[in-house]
Amino acid sequence: MIKTFFKRLTWIVVVGVCLASFLPHIFTEYWLLDLFTHFKVQYAVLSLLLLVTMFLTRYHKKGIIGLLLISLIWNCFFIIPYYFNNHDLKAAHTSDVSVLSINLLSSNTDYKSVGTYLEKTNADVVVLLEFNQKWAKQLQPVLNGYMYKKLVPRSDNFGIALFSKIPMDLEELTFNSSDTPSIRGNFKVEKESVTIVATHPIPPISQAAFHRRNQQLNAIIENKHTFQENLIVIGDFNMSSFSPHFMSLTAGKLYDTRVGFGLLPTWPASIKLLQTTLDHCLVSKNINIMERTVGENIGSDHLPVFVKLNITTN
Fold first, then answer.
1. Helices (H), ranges, the chain
2. Which residues contact 272 (CB under 8 A, 6 or more apart)?
3. Nearest of 259, 232, 257 to residue 166 by alpha carbon
4. Which of 37, 55, 258, 287 makes the best surface tag, with the fewest CB within 10 Å?
5. Which pLDDT score, from 0 to 100, does residue 94 have?
6. Distance (Å, rounded) from C-alpha 40 to C-alpha 74?
7. Residue 99 and residue 20: Cα distance in Å, rounded?
8. Are 18 and 31 in contact, with CB atoms under 8 Å apart?
9. Are 301 and 269 in contact (CB under 8 A)?
C-alpha cells in the first residue's frame, strides 16, 4: 500500500514539474501560467533530485526517467547561458557609470540598512521603487549629494525616484496609457549621449494586469528610437528572465546584464529556495557590463541590483 502510494505520488510530482516547465511556453498569453516561468532553477533541481532518488532506490521506470531527463535538459537550457559571457566589446576609450536599483518595499521600515547600503555602494545613479513620502523624508540626508533628481512619490506601491550625480535631464513618463510612472533621464558620458529609463510595471496578478505589464515594457522597446542610441532600462519588471515576454524584450534589441554573471536572483529576498529574477537591467549593444551584483537583504522583499557599465566612446 505505502509503495503504491509513493509510486503514484512520484508520477504526480513528475508530471506537475513537466507541466509547469513546458506549458508557459506553449500558452504564452495566460497570466497564471506565466507565473510558473519564475522557477526554472527549482524545477531543474527537483528533476535532478528525483532522478538521483530513483537510481538510489532502483525504481527504474523508463517513463518517469524520460520525463525527468527532458525536464532537466529543458530547464537547464534557460539557466546555463547566464553563466557564459557573449557580450564582449572592445572600445578605444571608455568611461564607467555605476547604477543602483532598489525596490524599497513601501511598508519596509529598515531605513538604517537602506541608508547604509546606499552610502556603501555610492552609485552614480540611484533608482528607487515603491517610493513614497516616508522614504523621501528618511533618505533625504543620505541622498543629499545627488544634485539631479526626479521624485514621483505615491501612496501605493508604484512611486518611483531617480537620483544622479551626473548632470541629467529628467522627465516622468507613462507608457501605453499606463498610470504607472516611469522616469527617463538623458545624460552624457564624455561625448556619448545616454538614456536611462527606470520603470516598475504592475504585477501580473490577473489577465488584465498581465497585459498591462507586457504593454508597458513592450512600449519602452517600441519607443527605443526616441531614446539615445546608448540605452539603459532598469527596474522591477515583475517578470522573470525565463518568461517568453522577457525574451521578446532582449530579442536582438537589448542585452540582459545578467549574462556572464549568473542568474543573481532578487525575489523573494528572505526565502532563498524560491528566489527568482524579477529585477532587471537591460542595455544597448554598445554598452559593456563591467560588474553586476545583488546586494544584501535590507528589509525589502527584493534584493538591490548594482551594475557598473562601460559606455563606449569615440
1. 2-26, 31-35, 40-57, 62-79, 111-121, 133-139, 207-222, 244-249
2. none
3. 232
4. 55
5. 67
6. 9
7. 34
8. no
9. yes
- pLDDT tens for each residue of 251-280: 867 999 999 999 999 999 999 999 999 999
Judge residue 240's burial from the number of C-beta atoms within 10 Å of its C-beta, 0-12 exposed, 13-18 middle, 19 or more buried: buried
Place of cell 556619448: 192
Whether the pLDDT of residue 211 is over 60: the answer is yes
Q: What is the mean pLDDT of the chain?
A: 92
Torsional class of 81: left (φ above 0), alpha (ψ -120 to 50), beta (otherwise): alpha
Give residue 132's identity as a one-letter amino acid code. N
Distance from C-alpha of 16 to C-alpha of 85, rounded to nearest angstrom: 33
State the Cα–Cα distance between residues 311 and 193, nearest whole angstrom: 9
100/235 Cα distance (integer angstroms): 9
Strand partners, 232: 196, 283
Short-list 169, 287, 157, 297, CA closest to 235: 157
Written as one letter, the residue type at 199 is T
Using DSSP bridges, classify how beta strands 93-103 and 125-129 pair: parallel, antiparallel or unpaired. Answer: parallel
